[in-house]
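To: structure subgroup
Subject: Chain for Friday's discussion

All,

I'm putting the inputs and outputs inline so they're searchable in the archive.
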Amino acid sequence: MINQLLRFTPILKQKIWGGKKLNQLLHKSSDGSNIGESWEISDVDGDESIVSSGNFAGRTLRSLLKEYKHDLVGDYVYNTFGKQFPLLIKFIDAKEVLSIQVHPDDDLAGLQKSFGKTEMWYVVQADEEASIIIGFKEDSNKEEYIKHLKSKSLLDILNIDEVKKGDVYFVPPGRVHAIGAGLLIAEIQQTSDLTYRIYDWDRKDIDGNYRELHTEKALKAISFSAENSYKTTYLKQENVANQVVTCPYFTTNILPVKGKKAIDLSKKDSFIIYMCVEGEVMFFHKNQQEIVRKGETILVPACIDKVEILSENSSELLETYIK
């Protein structure tokens, strides 16, 4: 039995649009000046997370799943998603705007032997007037889209939201989007590194080359339907797991913590991931104690049916699992 809370060594990714907030605000150890992503929990090929402490230190997430199966992820999750851990957990620092992009669903991604890419964003920190590009302003179509793509005027038909700390956006496959400059984001997504890049602002990488665009693949993925609002609304009751997003791939709650709280996990047939997005929280399980600070992540295996948490001051956790 894998009867231990698991912590992993973050995998830091340099990005053309990355900055220094992951180091300065979330205390990720890096000398790089353009670290755009911290992969907190990953089972992406070539980027498997490694346990950082405890009895399983040095083991990869993939090797633990291979050995412990249902004990690690739960019966439903293992039977549904198989031998690959189904979620990729990140913090993202966008010093500059990301490319305008879209993600494929499971069917399209399956052609490239990958999961699709459904994801959500929680805004951990936002500079003044920071914004995101999300969806279309009004229902569009292939012809209108191509016209604006060719004339580099996509912003005329795409929706732009100014955002602040605590805002949440759900990004299903097919929804055109881009994280804007000045945002620090917690991202929860399917295990996939598949992105169809639509437009990259004509910028060049460190070698002086333009990054690849995926025009034809994006056309097959895009949903041209508009929404009245793209922002997710949610409650925020203290010491309660307030549901923020739920879909077939993950459910995420916001848990504001103050004082001590016991969490009964016995009815969840899933692993639980906690990302600290404010303050710090002490986790207790049997003889194990773990302090999870802002910007840190911990995984509770499915076979653990109870943990206790304690925050001396007001803290906030994102709680994620699969129903």
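Points worth raising on Friday:
Residues 11-232 form a domain with the Jelly Rolls fold (CATH 2.60.120.10).
The two ends are 22 Å apart (CA to CA).

D.
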